[in-house]
Known about the structure:
- The longest helix has 28 residues, at 2-29.
- It is globular and about 45 Å long.
- Strand 2 (108-113), helix 6 and strand 3 (134-138) form a beta-alpha-beta unit.
- The chain has two domains: 2-56, no CATH class; 64-229, Vaccinia Virus protein VP39 (Rossmann fold), CATH 3.40.50.150.
- The protein has eight helices and seven strands, in the order H-H-H-H-E-H-E-H-E-E-H-E-H-E-E.
- Helix 1 crosses helix 2 (52-59) and helix 7 packs across helix 8.
- Strands 3-2-1-4-5-7-6 form a seven-stranded mixed β-sheet, sandwiched between helices.
- By secondary structure, the chain is of the alpha/beta class.
- Bound molecules: S-adenosylmethionine (SAM).
Amino acid sequence: MMTLRKHSLSMYRSCRVGAVLLLWALALAGCGMFEGPPTHSVGHSYKQIGAEEGTHLRYQDPDRYTWQYPERVIKALKLEAGMKVADLGSGTGYFTFRLAEAVGSSGKVYAIDIDAEMNASIDKQAVAKQIENVKTLLAVEHDPLIPEKVDLIFSVNAYHHLKDRADYFRNAARYLKPGGRVAIIDFRKGAFRHYTELKVLLEEFKAAGYALDKTHGFLPRQNFLVFSLAKN
Ligand SMILES: C[S@@+](CC[C@H](N)C(=O)[O-])C[C@H]1O[C@@H](n2cnc3c(N)ncnc32)[C@H](O)[C@@H]1O
């Protein structure tokens, strides 16, 4: 009887360990920052087997800190208190809450995604962290649908998801305040399976009517470019 109970207990423990390992494997296998079978492509929302938790784990993985340098990115954006920022393709909010801190309670961050599950994750975090200057917006594929003009449209690892990008940003110009900027961070060729070539990025923004303001070279895996509307 005793041996049987011990056996069941050890079976239960190994099942539990197995389940945890399986969850992690699923979390690492989708789109995002790790290698694995592709589960998203240009123009599609990212879905990770319907597992909001897995997506959150992946985007917020502590290893990301070692190459994403979030504080340096935020500093480089030179945000000021009271500014309005659109975090385009905000996912589970890796940058959203850092942007919100940078613009302060008088500012506002629109967390914009076409995936309602991502927005729900951000809403949940905002409530838990008692953050009031973040507002999630459900966008459509070809338009961020921002309800007012912003100082900055910021987008990390989402550019390669967008379709007809020159048209997209030509249209998005109407959401920029005078002097407003667009900052794009996306993987370099060779750094990750999904990427945007620098040449392509520059050509598309030129075609959309923007001029390159700044190139930040400190991110090891990604291009980090800042544009503003070209003066005619
Ligand atoms: C790889 S995730 C990046 C998330 C976040 N920016 C980060 O760095 O952790 C890309 C996000 O872009 C979203 N996305 C894809 N196409 C989009 C579109 N047309 N408009 C807005 N968001 C989009 C996806 O749903 C996904 O949440």
